[in-house]
Amino acid sequence: MTELSGLDVRKTYKLYIDGKFPRSESGRSYPVLDSRGALVANAVLGSRKDLRDAVKAARGAQPSWAARSAYNRAQILYRVAEIMQGRRPQFVDELAVGGSDDPAGEVDAAIDRWVWYAGWSDKFAQVLGAANPVDGAYFNFSVPEPSGVAGIVCPDDAPLLALVSRTAPAIVAGNTTVVLASERWPLVAVTLAEALATSDVPGGVVNILTGRRAEIVPWMAGHADVDTIDVTGCEPDLRTVAEQQAAESVTRVVAARPADRDWTSDHAQSPYIIAGFVEYKTVWHPQGT
């Protein structure tokens, strides 16, 4: 029997678009360093075309994702948590290399957060919606509906948990997403993409890009097919740029509140975070038969 050589086969990190793992059309990459400054891997440096491809995939997947029942979306989010649980040691190792203070705790919290939002899938509409008082023989209801395609800019702190904390409330409402991973430590986001690809999440519902925020965020905010952009991961100057671009494309801008950025706390999960990713439809209905 031939003995194994023990060759260290390094993982190749790619983008995640439309359920596939393409390389960037630009062929560019950038080094990802561990907490001691040593090279860990090269991550893809996403381009404007990569963003366009991701938005196109998200837009194409959105109608069918929104049309699924709330119960079915809950099942799918729960399945993501199951897949992550099975790959827990890999997630912990990747966060540890990046210098996380509590990698095991962050992974467990991320798994729990998928489950938490899965539980809200068929309940948030009752909290966010309303039966409005009117003067007349009819009913008036406000019903939350998905806004469409959401761009998510992830911060560098808690690169896994923050990503889940902002992406899960967007997709549980029926939106599809284009996620820009943490720039400093993007590798765990690509590993999450592998979990998504082997779960029941349809291709295009979650698309994950890696690269420079300063390069990609203005394109994301100004893209006419992005309905909401979450700028939680943007520094103040870049957030200003994003808001200016979003104003021209009539894109809603949302972000986690300072209190919500304690990612392991209960403040980081709420049905009211879902509200940032929905629109409201008003329905009138006559009383009686």
Which keywords apply here?
single chain, 289 residues, alpha/beta, Aldehyde Dehydrogenase, Chain A, domain 1, 5-stranded parallel sheet, 3-stranded antiparallel sheet, 10 helices, 10 strands
Short summary of the structure?
The protein is of the alpha/beta class and 289 residues long.
Helix-residue proportion: 40-55%
Major sheet attributes: 5 strands, parallel
Overall pLDDT metric? 93
The end-to-end span amounts to: 80 Å
The name of the CATH superfamily reads Aldehyde Dehydrogenase, Chain A, domain 1
Low-confidence runs (pLDDT<50, min 5 residues)? Answer: none
Q: What percentage of amino acids are in beta strands?
A: 15-25%
- What is the CATH C-level name? Alpha Beta
Describe this protein's structure.
The structure is a single chain. The protein has 289 residues and is of the alpha/beta class. The protein has a single domain, classed as Aldehyde Dehydrogenase, Chain A, domain 1 (3-Layer(aba) Sandwich). 42% of the residues lie in helices and 18% in strands. The chain is built from ten helices and ten strands. The chain has helices spanning 48-67, 70-86, 88-97, 103-120, 124-128, 161-172, 187-197, 213-222, 236-249, 271-274, and strands spanning 29-33, 39-44, 130-132, 138-146, 149-153, 176-180, 206-209, 228-230, 252-254, 278-286. It has a five-stranded parallel beta sheet with strand order 7-6-5-8-9, with helices on both faces. Strands 3-4-10 form a three-stranded antiparallel beta sheet. Strands 1-2 form a two-stranded antiparallel ribbon. Helix 7 links the parallel strand 6 and strand 7 (206-209). Helix 2 (70-86) packs antiparallel against helix 4 (103-120), helix 3 runs antiparallel to helix 7 and helix 8 packs parallel to helix 9. The chain is globular. The termini are far apart.
